[in-house]
Design a protein that fits this description.
2 copies of one chain form a homodimer.
Chain A lengths: L2 H13 L4 H11 L5 H13 L3 E4 L7 E4 L4 E6 L5 E5 L4 H11 L2 E2 L6 E4 L1 H5 L2
Parallel strand pairs in A: 3-6
Antiparallel strand pairs in A: 1-2, 3-4
Helix pairs in contact in A: 1-2, 1-3, 2-3
Chain A binds a DNA duplex (25 and 25 nucleotides) through helix 3.
DNA sequence: TTAAGTGCAAACGGTTTGCATGGAT
DNA sequence: ATCCATGCAAACCGTTTGCACTTAA
C-alpha cells in the first residue's frame, strides 16, 4: 500500500459513486502531484483486490464505490437521476436467468435503464 | 430520406447489433465517400424516429439494431458473449419497480451484466 | 434564397500506453 | 541490483463540433 493507493482508496470511500476524474481531483486537493494515470491504475488494482467496484450508468465514465453495499442502480435516461434500491429486487430474475440460461447475474455492474417517476409522468 | 440515410438504415438492418464504426465501414463498401460523422448524425435521427435503437453492453461503443425485436441482452463481462432472451423475462421486475419506485424499466437500453454459463463454471 | 444535409478537420472526454525516473527490498 | 510504482507525454477510441460547400424545396 503506497501513499497514493491509500489516498485513492480513501477518496473512493468519501465520494461514493464518483468517476475516476472526480476521484483524481479529490486526491489532488491534498496531494496535487498525483497523476490521473495512477488513479486509473490504482482503481484497477483495488478492483482486482475486491475492495472497490465500478458500475456503468449507461453513458459517461464508470462510477466507483467501496464494495460492501450491494445496490441495484436505476438510471433515468431522460434526467440522468440515479435511484439506488435493494439488490434483492433482482432475486427473482436472478433465479430465472440461472435456471433458463445458466447466466449468473451481477446486479451491481450495470445500472438498469428507464424513466424515473417524474420523467415517466411527463411522457 | 437521402441516399446516405437509406444506406445507414440498410446497414443497421443487415448487421444487427453493430457499432457505429462497423455500420460506417459497411456503408463505405458501396459508397466510400460517406463520412462517419454522417453515420452518427443519421443514427441519432433514425433513433428519434423510432426505427432503430441502441443498447449499451457495458464497455465500448453502443450497438444499433432495427426496432421491432424487443430482446433483453445478457452480456458476460468475462468473455464478452451476448445472449439475447425474451424481454418478457423482465415482466415481473418491471411490475415491482413500477409499484415500488414509479420507475419505468426500459429492457432494451442496457444489457444486464454477469457471467455466462461457460464462464460461471470456470469461476 | 433559404434551409437542410454533407464532408472534413479539429476538438473533445475518457482511457491506455511507452518510457524514463525514483524508491523500496 | 532488482523490481515495482509513479509521473509525464503521447497515443488511443468513440464521439461531437465548427465550418464551408452543396443540394433540394
Amino acid at each position: 500500500m503506497t501513499p497514493q493507493r491509500q489516498l485513492v482508496l480513501d477518496a473512493v470511500g468519501e465520494l461514493e459513486h464518483a468517476t475516476p476524474e472526480q476521484i483524481c481531483r479529490r486526491v489532488q486537493r491534498s496531494t496535487p502531484s498525483v497523476n490521473i494515470t495512477t488513479v486509473y491504475r490504482t482503481l484497477d488494482l483495488l478492483e482486482d483486490l475486491g475492495v472497490v467496484q465500478h458500475t456503468h450508468l449507461g453513458h459517461g465514465a464508470p462510477r466507483y464505490s467501496t464494495r460492501p453495499q450491494e445496490y441495484l442502480r436505476l438510471a433515468c435516461h431522460r434526467c440522468e437521476h440515479v435511484i439506488e434500491v435493494d439488490a434483492g429486487e433482482l432475486d427473482g430474475l436472478s433465479t430465472t436467468l440461472r435456471a433458463h440460461y445458466g447466466f449468473e447475474l451481477d446486479p451491481t455492474h450495470v445500472a438498469l435503464s428507464g424513466l424515473c417517476a417524474a420523467c415517466a409522468r411527463n411522457e
